[in-house]
Amino acid sequence: MKNFFRSLLAKYMLIIVLALSIVQIAYVMIAILLTGVSDNFETDYTSDEMDYEQIEEDWHKDANSLETEEDISRNFDKWKNQYPDASMFWVDQSGILRDATEKRDDLPTEWTSSFTARFIKDRYGENPFTVIAFVGEEDTDGFVVFEINRDVFQTSTQIAFDNYASWLFVGTLFLVVFFIFISFLFFRGIRKRLLQLQEAMEIRDVDELPIQIDVKKRDEIGQLEQTFNQMVHELRESKKREQEEEQLRRELIANLSHDLRTPLTKINAQTYKIAKQDVSNDAKQAIHALQSSVEDIDKLIENLMSYTLLMASKYKLDIQEVDIVRFSRERIATWYPVFEKEGFEINVELEPLRENVWHVDPVWLGRVLDNLLQNVLRHAKNGRYVELKIESRNSYDAIVVRDRGSGMKDSSNQKGAGIGLSIVDMMIKGMQLDWEIQSSNDGTTIKIKKNIQDKQ
Fold first, then answer.
1. Sorting pLDDT into bands at 50, 70 and 90, what band is 386?
2. Rounded to whole angstroms, what are the CA distances from 314 to 61, 161, 434?
3. What angle (nearest 5°) sits at the alpha carbon of residue 430, between those of residues 427 and 432?
4. How far is CA 264 from CA 38, 257, 261, 295, in A?
C-alpha cells in the first residue's frame, strides 16, 4: 500500500479528486452567491401571481361573469391594478375592437376570422403570455384578451442568473483550464524524467558504458531508473571481470609461449646434432620433417605472442618514411632461396610509382609481408607460383601478393593461417592502410592498398 501512494497512478488520481472537489465547492459557492445576489433583485409580482395556469383560470372566470360594457371596463381596471404591465382589449361579436387598456398599432379596429385565427396561432406558447376568453356565459358578446410579457414573471434568482451567467461561464472555464494546466505540469514532469533517462542511456563514459543517474523519487519511473542503474552496475562488473580474464589470458599465453620456446630450442639443438651424424636416408628425412615441425611451432608461438601484444595495444608502432618499392624488393629477396628450394616460380614486378614513399612502420609492414608469403609457402604449394608486384590505380597504390593455389576455401594440412591473417588485419589497419582478398580455386590475390588521398 505504501508503494501505491508513491506511484504516478495515485498522484494522478489525487489530481482528479482534487479537481472534482474544487468544481463541487465552486458550484456550491456560486449557488450561495447567486442566492445572496438574488435577494437584491426585486420583482413586481409575488409567487402566487406568477402562476400562469392560475392567471388563465381567473381570467376565464371573470370573463364569464361579464354582461355589460361597464363590467368589461371595471374588470380591465381591476386586472390593470394587479398587473400594471399587462395589456387587455375587447373584440365584440361583430369583430370590432371596442375597448383596450392602451392604444396599440398592431391591433386592427376590425377583426376578420382569418386574422383572429392567425393571432391565436402566433400567441400560442409564445411571448407575451396571452389568455383569450369569451365574454359572458353564452359566449355571444365577443372575447377579451389578456397579454403580459413573460419576463416580468422571472424570479429574482433567474434575474441574477441572467445577469451573472457570463461570470459563471468564465468561472467554469477557469476551472477546466486550471485542471488542464495541472495535468500538463504532471505529464511534463513525467516526460522530462523519461527524456533524462533516455539521455543517460545514450551518454557513454570513458569506458564506453552508460552512466548511472540519480534516483530522486520512488514511483514507477524511479523504479525504472533504479533498474537502469542496476543494469549499468552489472555491465561494469561484467566488463571488469572480462578485463581481468583477458589479462589472465594474456599472461597465460605469454608464459606458455616462453615455456614452450625453451624445450623447442633444446629439441632444435638436438635435432641439429643428430643431423650432423652419419645416418640413413630415412633418418635424414625424419630429421628434416622434425626440423620443419619445430620451425612451424616456433612460427605459431611467435604469431600467438604478436596477436596477444596487438590485442593489448603493447606492440609498438613506429611510423617512418619508407620507399615501398625498395622495401618490397629487399623483402622478397630474403624469400628467394626458400621458394626456389620448394620449386616455386617467382614473378616480381616492382615498377617505380609517382610517389614511392609510404608512411608506415617498417617492422609491421615487414611482418605483414612475411606472414602473407609464409601463407603462400604453406597453403599454396600445389600451385608452385608466387608473385609480388606494385599496382597503381587512380584511387590507390598497392602491394600485390598472388599465388596459384587452390584458394582459401580448400582445407590445408597446415594450420595457423587464421591467427596469421588476424595479425595482418590489425597491423594493416594500425598503419591506416586498407587491404582486400580475392580467392578462388585458381588462386588467391591479396592487395595492401594506400589510398590516393593519403598521398596528399
1. very high
2. 121, 89, 22
3. 115
4. 115, 10, 5, 9
The helix (run of H) or strand (run of E) holding residue 346 is strand 345-349
What letters, b where the CB count within 10 A reaches 16 and e where it falls short, cover 23-52? eeeeeeebeeebeebbeeeebebeeeeeee
Task: Give the Å distances, CA to CA, from 64 to 54, 81, 146.
Answer: 16, 20, 14
User: Locate cell 551518454: which residue?
Assistant: 203
List Cα–Cα distances, 183 to 19, 194, 217, in angstroms.
10, 17, 19
pLDDT band at 348 (very low <50, low <70, confident <90, very high): very high
User: pTM score, two decimals?
Assistant: 0.43
Q: Classify 316-455 by CATH class.
A: alpha beta
C-alpha cell at 163: 445577469
Dist. CA 116–CA 121, nearest whole Å: 9
> d(Cα 278, Cα 273) in Å, to the nearest integer?
11
Grid cell digits, residue 286: 625424419
